[in-house]
Fold:
Amino acid sequence: MELPAPLRAALDRALDGHSIGALASAGSTLSRRYRAETRDGRLHLADEAAALAYLATRMPATFSAVRRALIETAGRAPGFSPRTLLDVGAGPGTVLWAASDVWQTLDHARLVEASRAIRACGEGLAQGGDLPERVWIDGRAEEALGDAQPADLVTLAYVLDELDEAARGRLVARLWALTRDMLVLVEPGTPAGWGRILAAREALLADGAHMIAPCAHALSCPIEAPDWCHFAERLARSRAHRLAKGAEAPYEDEKFIFLAVSRRPHDGPAERILARPQAGSGKVRLKVCAPDGSARTLLVTRRDGERFKAARRADWGDSLD
Ligand SMILES: C[S@@+](CC[C@H](N)C(=O)[O-])C[C@H]1O[C@@H](n2cnc3c(N)ncnc32)[C@H](O)[C@@H]1O
Structure:
């Protein structure tokens, strides 16, 4: 996946003139904190150096993951045409860019963000895009959502891992209360990220939410540790991205997990592909999450006709109608 040209240009402008050495050094501190899931009361993106490193080393990947999660959500909810967005822990406006790419119906966004430094980056980037009218709300979600208005689409991307367990449960419940139609959560595709999504899934379904994606059902998750549910999105790295990460490869694979639930049922359930398909001559083997609540391997052969053609085209994370 390539970033949309206006976002790529906005990122290039924001990073222009900043030393690659400084971006790389702040990027590796950031990466250490994310990997360790450090929760020491300080925001990871508290200052400008960390915020710029996020633009260089993380935003392209989180954008790709979020956009894919929203595309999969839209695929299961074709009648969903949100006009308003509430995004919490907005960072540099990643969800704003991704959601606007998926739903051109969006005309107003509210973006809650606790770090002044990353919010300033987000406001600057957004000048370069054809994006909905937006209001940035300064502060921690716990206080800033006090008198918030509900929105058609409510999102929380790569934020749960920064909160302790009790705060996560409270925030998910508050976001659901503010959801007019669709709530989408995105987390890193690690076992811990999957665990946080599972906990949110259980609480939201118990609260009457309808499953939209990625699960093919609203029964208990059939996947058992040490396996975990996650997807991957491959994205092209820009020169600044490569240099700031000290990486050679021109692309990276961002692993992520997400959950989309709605106030109302949308499309019927469909199998979801849980791993890279294995294609052989005249056959494709697919690991799927199935509407009957199981996770199993399907063998689709040429004899299956149209289903075989669909299976040949399908990729990890797609749903198979
Ligand atoms: C990893 S970044 C994700 C940014 C963006 N959502 C993305 O996907 O690229 C997490 C963001 O959440 C913000 N954040 C963390 N805890 C928060 C809270 N309690 N209230 C508001 N923002 C919060 C952080 O400052 C940071 O900008």
Summary: The CA atoms of residues 217 and 292 lie 7 Å apart. Residues 59-76 form the longest helix (18 residues). The chain has a mean pLDDT of 95. The two ends are 23 Å apart (CA to CA).
